[in-house]
Specification:
It is built from 22 helices and no strands. By secondary structure, the chain is mostly helical. InterPro entries: MTERF, MTERF_sf.
Length: about 400
C-alpha cells in the first residue's frame, strides 16, 4: 500500500494542474539552413580568420563533407587548427573497423573528437562500450549515432551512468538498446536526473520488471525534469488510473508518448461509434495501450466488431485488447472460418468470438479446422487465403 502522504501529493498536483493539464510538452521546430552551391575554393578565400583552409580541404576531400559543412564544423570547433590530430583520430577509428560513412556521421555530430587525445580520451571511452560487446562494424554503427558520448566525462558521466542503467535494466543486453533510444541518457548526471526520476517512479509503485520495461521502451522519460514527471503522474491519476494497478506503468507510457490532441482524437472516434465517456474511461483504465493504436486501425476495428461481427459495445469495453489484434492475420480470418462452420451447421452452438480470438494458433487450427477434415481445404483457404494472395502478388511483381 502506498502511504497517504504520497497520495496527497498526487492530488495536490492534480488540483494545481487542471487548467492546463494537457499542455505539458510544447513542441518546438528548429531549422538548420546551410548555403549550398559554393565550391571549396570559394570557402578557402572567404574562410573567417583563424580557420585553416587545409583543414577544410581535408574534411571535404578525405571525409566527404561539402564545403559549407566543412566550414560549419570548423566554426563549431575553434581548436581545429592543424591536420595532425584529425588524421590520427580518423586512422584510429578506421583501425577499429569504422567505415567512412560511420566516421563522417560521428564527426558531423561531434566534431570535437577530431581534437581529442586518442590514448587519454578516446581509447578508454570506446573500450567501455567494447566491453559491453560492441566490435568492428557494430562499434562504428553505434558511435555514428552516439558520437556525442565521446565528449562526455568518463568518470563523472559514462561509467556511473552505465552502472546505474545496468541496475535498473536487470539485463546487460538491453543497455545498448536504451542508450540508442535515449540519446542523451548517458550525458546526464545519473545522481541528479536518473536516480531522482527512478526513485520517484518506484514511489509510484513502478518497480522491478515494470521499471525495467519502462526504461527500455521510453528511456527519454527518465530524462524529464522531476517536476514534469510528477505532472505526468498526476495526469494519469486524474484520468482514473490507480498507482496500485499493474496497468499504471502502461498509462504513464501511453500518456508520455502521445499529445493530448492525439489522445482526445482517439476518444472522439469512440464517441462517434456510440461509446460514452464512461466507456472510454473504463477502456483506458483496463488497457491504455489501445489508445496508442493508429486512428485508421481503430476505426476499421470498431466498424468490423460492431457492424460485421455484431459484438455489443460492452464486450469491447470489457475486452479492449482485441482492438490491438491484427485484423488481417487474426480477426477477419477467424471470423470467416466461424461463418463457414456455422453456415454448414458443423457447430452445435456459436462460440464466443472473443474466446476464439484469445486462442493460440495451434489450438484454433486443431479445434476449428483439423477437426473437420472433409472441409479442411475450404476452411484453410478462408483462414490463410489472404497470405496466399499476397504471395502470388509478390511472385507476379518479381516476374514483371
Amino acid at each position: 500500500m502506498l502511504n497517504r502522504r504520497f497520495t496527497c501529493q498526487i492530488h495536490q498536483l492534480i488540483h494545481h494542474c487542471k487548467p492546463t493539464f494537457f499542455n505539458f510538452f510544447p513542441l518546438r521546430t528548429y531549422r538548420n539552413k546551410s548555403p549550398t552551391g559554393i565550391n571549396s575554393e570559394t570557402y578557402r578565400k572567404k574562410s573567417p580568420t583563424g580557420i585553416n583552409p587545409e583543414v577544410i580541404d581535408y574534411l571535404t576531400l578525405s571525409l566527404g563533407f561539402s564545403s559549407p559543412q566543412a566550414l560549419s564544423l570548423c566554426q563549431r570547433t575553434p581548436r581545429l587548427k592543424t591536420l595532425e590530430n584529425p588524421r590520427s583520430v580518423v586512422y584510429f577509428l578506421k583501425s577499429l573497423g569504422f567505415s567512412d560513412t560511420q566516421i563522417r556521421c560521428s564527426v558531423n555530430t561531434a566534431p570535437q573528437i577530431l581534437n581529442a587525445h586518442i590514448d587519454k580520451t578516446l581509447k578508454p571511452k570506446i573500450k567501455l562500450f567494447q566491453d559491453l560487446g560492441l566490435q568492428d562494424y557494430d562499434l562504428g554503427e553505434f558511435f555514428s549515432k552516439n558520437s556525442a558520448l565521446l565528449n562526455s566525462s568518463l568518470e563523472r558521466r559514462l561509467i556511473p551512468g552505465v552502472d546505474f542503467l545496468k541496475k535498473l535494466l536487470l539485463s546487460d543486453k538491453d543497455l545498448l538498446l536504451v542508450i540508442n533510444r535515449g540519446k542523451r541518457i548517458l550525458g546526464k548526471d545519473p545522481e541528479k536526473v536518473l536516480k531522482a526520476n527512478s526513485e520517484y517512479l518506484m514511489e509510484c509503485g513502478i518497480v522491478g520488471k515494470q521499471l525495467s520495461m519502462l526504461l527500455r521502451r521510453q528511456p527519454r522519460l527518465f530524462l524529464m525534469k522531476l517536476g514534469d514527471l510528477k505532472k505526468l503522474v498526476a495526469r494519469a491519476v486524474y484520468m482514473g488510473a490507480s498507482v496500485e494497478s499493474k496497468m499504471f506503468v502502461y498509462t504513464i507510457q501511453t500518456l508520455y508518448c502521445m499529445s493530448n490532441d492525439t489522445l482526445m482524437g482517439k476518444f472522439q472516434l469512440f464517441y462517434e461509434f456510440g461509446f460514452s465517456k464512461v466507456d472510454c474511461a473504463d477502456m483506458f483504465r483496463r488497457m491504455p495501450n489501445v489508445f496508442k493504436t493508429s486512428h485508421e486501425k481503430l476505426k476499421f476495428g470498431l466498424s468490423f466488431f460492431l457492424n460485421t461481427a455484431k459484438l455489443k459495445k460492452t464486450v469491447l469495453v470489457n475486452h479492449p485488447f482485441i482492438l490491438m489484434s491484427s485484423m488481417e492475420n487474426r480477426v477477419i480470418p477467424r471470423h470467416k472460418v466461424l461463418e463457414i462452420l456455422m453456415s454448414k451447421k458443423l457447430l452445435k452452438q456459436q462460440p464466443s468470438f472473443i474466446a476464439v480470438l484469445y486462442l493460440s494458433e495451434d489450438v484454433f487450427l486443431d479445434k476449428f479446422i483439423s477437426k473437420f477434415p472433409s472441409y479442411a481445404d475450404e476452411l484453410l483457404a478462408a483462414y490463410k487465403g489472404h497470405l496466399l494472395e499476397s504471395l502470388e502478388e509478390k511472385e507476379t511483381e518479381s516476374i514483371t
